[in-house]
Amino acid sequence: MLLPLYHAWACLCFCAALVLGGYVLVMMYGSVGTVRRRRDYEEFEVDVPPGSLGLPVIGETLQFMAAIKSGRGFYDFVESRRLRCGRCFKTNIFGETHVFVSTATSAKMILNNDSGKFTKRYIRSIAQLVGNQSLLCASHQQHRHVRGHLNNFFSTCSLSAFIQQFDVLIVKSLDDWEHRGTVVVLDEALKITFKIMCRMLLSLESGRQLEMLQEDVSIVCKAMLAFPLRLPRTRFQRGIEARERIMSALETLITQRRLARTSHEDCLNYLLSNDDETECKKDPKLTTGEIKDNILTMIIAGHDTTASAITWMVKFLGENETVLDKLRAEQVCFAKKMSGRPFLKLEDIGEMSYASKVVKESLRMASVVPWFPRLVLQDCDIEGYKIKRGWNVNVNAKSVHFDPAVHDNPFEFNPSRFDDESKLPYSFLGFGAGGRTCLGMNMAKAMMLVFLHRLVTTYKWRVLDPDSTLEKWALFSRLKNGCPVLVTRLAEETTDALAD
Ligand code: HEM
After folding, report:
1. Which long-range contacts (CB under 8 A, 24 or more apart) does 278-284 make?
2. Which end of the chain has fewer CB atoms at under 10 Å, N or C?
3. pLDDT per residue over 4-52, tens digit each?
4. 183: exposed, middle or buried (C-beta count within 10 Å: 0-12, 13-18, 19+)?
5. Are 393 and 118 within 8 A, CB to CB?
6. Residue 356, SS3?
7. Which of 111, 305, 396 to mutate to test the pocket of ligand 1 (most atoms within 8 A of CB)?
8. What spacing in Å lies between the alpha carbon of 59 and ligand 1's midpoint?
9. 289 contacts: CB under 8 Å, gap ≥ 6
């Protein structure tokens, strides 16, 4: 998840390296002919994955940057090499060897990590922003400890308490869409998911405190894509300052909660309530530092991803009338069934069979987190090739999602492909897999389902701009145009007809 960020700031280094690159190239190899011989030699190595390491120093960084700049995203870069070299290939980006794998079997081996040969990449500048006790940066031991506590909170029973709150918030947010006519879905979804995350984590719903937090989180997110230069007014330094403000606001909130001993229905309350329990040597409570770093991590990891996923889902549905009709029929029937009961419950979500497949199919097609980077800790074999310690291996989720050998007609938006429960394991990687599977997976699915239910039973919409260009240098796969749609309220006769 962090590799794209690393590449973002590394691109600045790269520009400087470009100037030096030509010089170094000539100095190191003397002539272009020598460079060619080196590349030819690499291609004939038998036991390492195929693929070119490109030019000395700069590798294939130029091509990588061009793919990202094109707006089609990094997938183009990976896909052209996959077609040429096969499902396991190597390249060199920003001076490091990267191996890309795109089979469900390799995904299983790397993400499950039973051999302990892989670890999530640690990037110092990211750790400075989210905190080194964050799940994204913690050591193996600390990760297990923090994850254990958070897993308990994210269990189904906590989710059940939040469904109604999601629903109230979504109904309120969707209420004024019809008066606006044109709505940019991504902008609206970002507001909704930020509020939901802050409600669920800290019981913050509105007011100046929420606005300030949103501003600061956005500064931290932008800093993740910046060159990590700690000079006054640099983007990175502004991110560090925003982090400090967030930490201090969380510190105040935690102190107030401890002093007042008031109870709230939120994640912070859950983590602090462990304060009262007898100290357990095996699994001690989370420290204030761990709590603060991970609240920030969850806001960052949860709101942008879910908002992007919602946006793609609205686009795919808007462009696939048959699927939308089938979904609307399911949801309108459902709405009639629960008439008299104003808000949704966890059990309702469990009954939304087709809608759940729509969510899954949207995540497959969108591949919001397109690849998962890991660092190789020991030499190993993948797909019959030798992989060296210190290399990066990337599980290329998007290629698995679009592999015709795994998913029939992969470019068709067809939720019914998930009717068959016995699908190849690890063929759907929308939330990752193994010990690093998305912590908020169930929560994200629930948010998407509640949103979907309210949207399709209240509105019809038309996608105004079908452009699928990706936002450049965004944290996740986000639509550049944000998906503008024209919204109109559904006529009552339509919903009545569908329910009959
Ligand atoms: C549709 C929305 C979401 C998508 C597509 C998504 C996707 C992912 C993926 C693919 C990973 C694994 C990355 C890897 O293995 O390298 C991940 C990790 C993570 N996600 Fe999500 N996520 C979503 C929503 C959320 C939400 C709502 C939260 C809120 C808690 C969240 C918190 C996290 C955290 C903390 C991690 C790191 C887990 C760890 O390393 O142990 N995500 N997410």
Report:
1. 283/145, 283/148, 283/149, 284/145
2. C
3. 444 444 544 444 444 344 434 433 443 444 444 444 444 445 699 999 8
4. buried
5. yes
6. helix
7. 305
8. 30
9. 131, 133
pTM: 0.89
Tokens 């990976």 found at: 78
Q: List the domains of the chain with CATH numbers.
A: 124-489 (1.10.630.10)
Residue 431 CA: nearest ligand 1 atom is 10
Q: Ligand 1 — pocket residues by CB below 6 A? A: 1, 135-136, 147, 297-298, 301-302, 305-306, 309, 363, 368-369, 372, 430-432, 436, 438-440, 443-444
The whole-angstrom separation of Cα 261 and Cα 266 is: 14
**H-type helices in 91-139, by residue range?**
104-112, 124-130
What's the complex ipTM?
0.99
Query: Residue 416 is encoded by which pair of tokens?
Result: 């019914």
Are 274 and 149 contacting, i.e. CB atoms less than 8 angstroms apart?
Answer: yes
| Sign of the C-alpha dihedral computed for residues 455, 456, 460 and 462 taken in this order | positive
Q: Residue 22 carries which side chain, given as an amino acid letter? A: G
Surface-to-core class of residue 486, CB atoms within 10 Å of its CB (0-12 exposed, 13-18 middle, 19+ buried): middle
